[in-house]
Amino acid sequence: MKKTRLIVVEDEALFRELLTSKLSGEPGLEVIAEAEDGEAAIRLATELQPDVMLMDIELKGDIDGIEAALQIKKERAQTGIVILSSHKDRRYIDSVPFDSSTGWAYLLKQTVSDITTIVRAIDASKDGMLMLDPAIAKDLVPKKNSAMAQLSKRHQEVLELIAQGHNNAAIADELGLSGKSIETYINVIYQELGLSGEPNIHNRVKATLLYLRDSRNRK
User: CA 108 to CA 79: how far, in whole Å?
Assistant: First the structure.
């Protein structure tokens, strides 16, 4: 099986070493390089063409993680980007240009202890999906009078799990439902949100974008 090639970009040496060590222990992943600033990240991405970049949102130097990611995406749009952040604050989340291209994930640094979630974020970004850290997704509620607010409680739960990067089987396991039931729920969500299939934009991506647009942090 072909391994997913990663570059880890983090300016804190100890955290970078921890992350690299964890990821290197996963059979389907290969860390091919590390960087501590945005300039090095861009250079390495150009030279090595990784499948996914794990990028600290706050880097030392003139180029932060978002700017570096945008430059990398401009050169090679299919590169997945997993943003690593210490912040749940909405202004940091909204600084990520999720709607500029596909293949983004936003993870909290505290999630590094959960290798399953990190791998899911890597896979999601590599496959052109969008994903939010579970702790962030769970903290969001529908804005009043938004399209998402019109969904039933169950449909909102399913949409939240889509935003967390779960596939249908994982959503079924989480909610204790059959795969067929989840498929039906998702089709209703797409209909209610006015989503239609497009060959270049997956409905799951559009649903996650709407989830972000139509939600706010809990008070």
Answer: 20
DSSP code at position 61: S
More confident residue, 219 or 129: 129
How many CA atoms lie less than 13 Å away from 217 in the CB half-sphere?
11
Q: Does domain 4-133 have CATH number 3.90.105.10?
A: no
The average pLDDT across 190-210 equals 82
pTM for this entry:
0.93
Q: Kindly state the helix (H) or strand (E) to which residue 104 belongs, with its residue range.
A: strand 104-108
Q: Which residue has the tokens 């999906």?
A: 129
Residue 4 region by backbone torsions, left for phi larger than 0, else alpha for psi between -120 and 50, else beta: beta
How long a stretch of residues is the chain?
219
Q: CA 105 → CA 111, 130, 136, distances in Å? A: 13, 6, 12
Q: What does the domain layout of the chain look like in residue ranges? A: 4-133, 140-217
Out of 1.10.10.10, 1.20.1300.10, 1.10.260.40, 3.40.50.720, select the CATH number for domain 140-217: 1.10.10.10
- Using a 10 angstrom Cβ sphere, with 0-12 exposed, 13-18 middle and 19 or more buried, the burial of residue 90 is middle
